[in-house]
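Reader question, answered in our methods column.
A reader sent in the components of a multi-part assembly and asked whether the whole thing could be modeled at once rather than chain by chain. We filled in our standard form and ran it. Here is what they sent:
COMPLEX SIZE: four components
ENTRIES:
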Amino acid sequence: MADAKTTTAAPMGPASRAYGGTHEVKPLPFDPAKLKGLSEKLLTSHHDNNYAGAVKRLNLIEQQLGQMPKDAAPYQLGALKREELIATNSMILHEFYFGNLGGDGRASGPILPLLAGAYGSLATWEQEVRQTGLSLGGGSGWVIVSYSPHERAVHTYWSADHTQNLAWGMPLLVMDMYEHAYAIDYGANAKSYIDAFFENLNWDAVNQRAEQARAGVT
Amino acid sequence: MADAKTTTAAPMGPASRAYGGTHEVKPLPFDPAKLKGLSEKLLTSHHDNNYAGAVKRLNLIEQQLGQMPKDAAPYQLGALKREELIATNSMILHEFYFGNLGGDGRASGPILPLLAGAYGSLATWEQEVRQTGLSLGGGSGWVIVSYSPHERAVHTYWSADHTQNLAWGMPLLVMDMYEHAYAIDYGANAKSYIDAFFENLNWDAVNQRAEQARAGVT
Amino acid sequence: MADAKTTTAAPMGPASRAYGGTHEVKPLPFDPAKLKGLSEKLLTSHHDNNYAGAVKRLNLIEQQLGQMPKDAAPYQLGALKREELIATNSMILHEFYFGNLGGDGRASGPILPLLAGAYGSLATWEQEVRQTGLSLGGGSGWVIVSYSPHERAVHTYWSADHTQNLAWGMPLLVMDMYEHAYAIDYGANAKSYIDAFFENLNWDAVNQRAEQARAGVT
Amino acid sequence: MADAKTTTAAPMGPASRAYGGTHEVKPLPFDPAKLKGLSEKLLTSHHDNNYAGAVKRLNLIEQQLGQMPKDAAPYQLGALKREELIATNSMILHEFYFGNLGGDGRASGPILPLLAGAYGSLATWEQEVRQTGLSLGGGSGWVIVSYSPHERAVHTYWSADHTQNLAWGMPLLVMDMYEHAYAIDYGANAKSYIDAFFENLNWDAVNQRAEQARAGVT
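And here is the structure of the entire assembly that came back:
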């Protein structure tokens, strides 16, 4: 990019989108008093503290990135870019997570043959999701079922913190395994939380995302 | 998913796609003898060892996942799922990386106003990419410019290893900052490598990906 | 080590200490019913599930390492060695953590001038500990005040999971910031947990460790 | 620590040791022109760029920590504390690493029965070190043989970046697996680098550390 060095850089700042810091907290897409085995207290705390906290933090981070001096040491920028990735993904993954709760847990729709096709059977897929979730119990992480354009297939991924994700894809079904997703209701019992997660899973939302993914990047 | 426990699971194994282990190594999409400032020795080693090694490892991992006993401890599955994520992303990111090399480095096309719009100016965007890259010098990582459907915009992300990526998006421009991307030619001089990267950047490939991303997930 | 390749390796297995898997769970060193602001339910769950779970897992991992085939792919060994590090450190850090709870929170003893000397004042030190703790709220991690033989001084360290620790040193004062350390009692309120931690801090234990550290590695 | 809040904090700053930023780069403890299979160019670059760079960065970070405003958001402190841990451990581990090079590679001394005792045989121990090293090839990390006071034994640990270490212990034998430790000489051939590492291993240094460790923390 030969001309870049002779271009006068516009001042970094709120005018540019990347440094805008204008993300907004979305409300829970369901009535938190009505889920089975996940209390209103837990769900509201999860939304108001962990999710909304990430969104507000991301706004601050973006604005700080816009004010980073050009002569800052690279590690100063890198440290803030890492915080940006954490907060960005926490925002995105929590929106997918809440977006696939509030259902009746009855598996249905065109996603089912895709899962069964990829894993040999639906039960094999669910076994892997549940065991991957248990492997994250007592710590932090996510289990993420994504559409992978590279595979042209659905696939389940392990993540031990917000930063860890498939390099190219769209989450279809997201299960939060941070302890804030269950400790208030279940203490250390990650297994019962996973049961509750599946009982409240909104398969319609999962199917809509799968439809969107297949219509898009392929 | 109430019925899952009563379903008889098909045996996990090579018949299912997720455990197939059939990924194939793609050749370099350019003549490695013809890049400016990146030697054939470096590029061939990078491709044959780091990229191809990840593909072959992924195939083994997928097959081992298919043979994981159902009563394995969760940490055994988790450890292998982590290796799967590492190898999967290494494969994907290396393909994007090699795919956006081999060009003449002249910035052009519809991606430019998108970058300038997001960051205030093209120079500001490039400054952030370069400084983020420098922050990863002497270690491992990637700088990844992605299309983010959540933002409906392009954005630059920091990653300190293969596992760290935007939770939902498509890489458009990928710069490898693992030391194997430059040490053979540049030793510890990450700055000169970044110069060479930009001089060989294939903006046509970046523009094609941006077009694909915008036509897809939005 | 020229002779190693011609030496006949003894079979790896339980006979060797590194693969022994004989770690034992230590009981809580205080009456969990008697702490201020940390419930018996929380403390017992923390001990019985998170700490004891790590010890038991470590025993399994060590035995599996002893049975690892010599021709296993390196990533298979690496994945298990990572699990070993996680479980080993979880065991060690939890023992330090429980070991410095159960006190009356009144700061005293020869550690105080060491902390004040390193940080300018005790209040500055405590401010950094508390803020570092808050930075880990909603996720996982530890705040660890260690004796560093390299510094010949005490110093406070950030850790975002069990694996992250000072490369050479002895923990003197350990605060668990995994959500399982507080969510049952405080939900997302990490700040109130940190208050409770300091109110139950056993400064005698901290002083004994400091004495041991100074008598030892210097 | 009831009184802390009423104490007037001294201003954080260079006067306090923790924020002093006065670490000094130590020279290589051997003549880099005389090692077998590790070039002077490689060793000098490794020392001058990677090790010395970490020391200089640590000094900047400590001073920035001393100037952190008290009302900074916790993530701002946490991000800098993470950089501090990275730079601190890079400094320490590189000093151990260079300190155990420059020898003739002939295994000898009281460390040998400790290693053989822990692992069943010296060859078993070396096999694990070598395979753990290979598992880190193509990325970053360390293989660290430590004295663990918790075990009252020596043990080998995996680390994928500077932050990952045994929670309580003293490194006795440290092998750098970052690509900057070998790529200049060996490209992607981590196996040949590990051979060269063992051929230049200074067992006297390892034995001296083991003696120091046993005399100290036990």
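What stands out: Residues 148 and 168 of chain D are 7 Å apart (CA to CA). Residues 40-66 of chain D form the longest helix (27 residues).
Send us your own complexes using the same form.
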